[in-house]
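Lab notebook, bench 4. Still working through the backlog of constructs that have no structural model yet. Next entry is a single chain of 369 residues. Request: give me the structure tokens for it.
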Amino acid sequence: MRIRKFIAVFFVLFAILGANAQAKKYIVHTVAFYNFENLFDTINEANNDEEWLPNGAQNWTSEKYKQKLHNLAKVLSEIGTTENPNNSPVLIGGAEIENRIVLEDLVKEPALIGKDYGIVHFDSPDKRGIDVALLYQKKHFRPTSFKNIPLLIYKNQLNAKAKEKNASDDASDDKSEIDKNLDRVYTRDILLVTGFLDGEEVNVMVNHWPSRSGGEKKSSPFREAAGRLGRKVMDSIYKVNPNSKIIIMGDLNDGTYNKSVKEGIGAKRKKEDVKQFGVYNPFEEMFYKGNATLFYRDAGDIFDQIMVSETLIQKDTSSFRYWKAGIYNKPYMITTVGQYKGYPLRHGATEIGYSDHFPAFIYLIKEVK
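Model written out:
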């Protein structure tokens, strides 16, 4: 009976490290990120949600909202179950979320309610009224601290660079005057959550970097600033504990090859190139193999990425380590006909789909002694 209970709690994986490891057993956890694409309720609030009301441009009704929740819950409950059949993700980063209410409705969906997800969410100053959040399985993850870190960017980003303020800076008395003079661009905050995953401390950063509105080149400095901010947050974590485990996830609105990721975060394509305090991005190799999380004008790219710190790619699996990554794109999530055949199946005039992005995920493993 004790053995049965153990297996019910932990997924047992054999031989993932080769023939010599057949006698070993591993805990496997899935960590995911999903852009929920306009997860709005039907209640009029003090944000830019007019489009997503029953009398708005999307004719967004309670029935459509409920179907959207059902669809998202189905996807979330299945991510990673190919290698981890006994459990949905222990950590789920989300983007394009109107408020905490929609998340509370989401985790109560039949496909998710049994997983007992907790929620970490802050309202962002984003002009579209959308936020990021983290869902976590309470039986596996215990948050100990969480905060929203503002990304201060301005239309005249070059002049603002000298005054750019990031997460670890103290708020200045003249901040409102700086915002006024430099014409701040209001976007999503970075969400930083620290907690214990089955007893091991892990830091998770959830991102939704500025869009490409106005063109990739013109908007690139905003995402480059987001990358620098992410790097600065990581460095502040390492100052407290040089052995910290850090997961950086989000819809970056940039590819794995862009300056914001390669120089801002400092992410590397190959594990062997990652030094102490460095970052490994498994999705860069996936991109060059033709994978995608979204499409634009028939060109695929990976904007949805999960990167890990050097401490998570070390070979010793007595502690949680990165194993491998994937993109969840089952056939039911894909448009099958028309101009957008092969694209993610999103909300349309006659059908409530899932999202215009496919979710990204990674597996973490730990040897069971």
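Notes after review: Confidence is low (pLDDT under 50) at residues 1-12, 170-174. The longest strand covers residues 25-39. Flag for follow-up if needed.
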